[in-house]
Amino acid sequence: MNILSLDTSSETMSLALKTDSKILSLSFKIGLKHSTTLLPWISRIVKEAGIEAASLSLIVCSIGPGSFTGLRIGLSTAKGIVMGSEKSSIVGISTPDSLAYRFNFFRGVTSPVINARKNRFYTAFYRSGERITDYLDVSTEDFFKLYKENVLKDTNGKESLLLTGPDAGSLFNYAEQNLPSLSVFLDRGFRFAAPYSLLKAGVERFNRNGGDDPAGIVPLYIRKSEAEIKMIGE
Fold first, then answer.
1. Which overall architecture, per CATH, does domain 3-94+191-233 show?
2. Cα(91)–Cα(204) distance, rounded to whole angstroms?
3. So where are the chain's domains?
């Protein structure tokens, strides 16, 4: 079974490809150049694996929240591959779910962090592999207020927090400087592990529930786009 995963939800683009004999992955910061970068890199990783794109059995795509444009490009590309092949299925996984997936057995709380711009972050809180909050759009101060007042309330403040994702460093630095009493850790290996984490989360979902309807998969937006905000303002 040939499986491709792709994440274009942030300025860090991630791809992973698993065949019967190989596992390939890449993750690098490209800014917001997904429209010119994604397809060439998919072609490159498929060629490196020695297979054809038409032989892909499953496409796992991150659906956000994240960059509005990046998500649309990623989903359109994934749907195009699936609709152009009779063999391919597709699974959409939220970006926070995929980032938290490899910490299912962490004894504490995991929180993926994605830049939402305007000094805010997309995130959620997870414990033992289960999401325990809604998907959130919060400032740094509100993030830690929510963590201390809601997430920690049942643990007497003794639980550790693990921050992962492309923008986890910002919250980690804030905690180090302003909240020394909290036990906060930073996932420094995120960029190397995230692509395969998305792929594994998608395979698990596919094995449990089957593929999604390509026409029914849409980006997970928890904030209006700038264009929508301007239209409302007008």
1. 2-Layer Sandwich (3.30)
2. 10
3. 3-94+191-233, 96-189
Alpha-helix residue ranges (DSSP H) falling in 30-167 = 34-49, 68-83, 95-101, 140-146
Note the pLDDT tens digit of each residue in 20-61: 999 999 988 888 788 899 999 999 999 999 999 989 999 999
Give the whole-angstrom CA distance, residue 106 versus residue 207.
23
pTM of the model: 0.90
Q: Which of 59-63, 106-110, 177-181, 187-191 has the lowest mean pLDDT?
A: 187-191
For 201-215, the DSSP string reads: HHHHHHHHH-PBPGG
CA-CA distance, 122 to 78, in Å (whole number)? Answer: 23
Taking 3-state DSSP, the helix, strand and coil percentages for the chain, each rounded to the nearest 5, stand at: 40, 25, 35
Are 218 and 76 a contacting pair, CB within 8 Å? no
What's the CATH number for 96-189?
3.30.420.200
Residues ≥6 apart with Cβ < 8 Å to 119: 139, 140
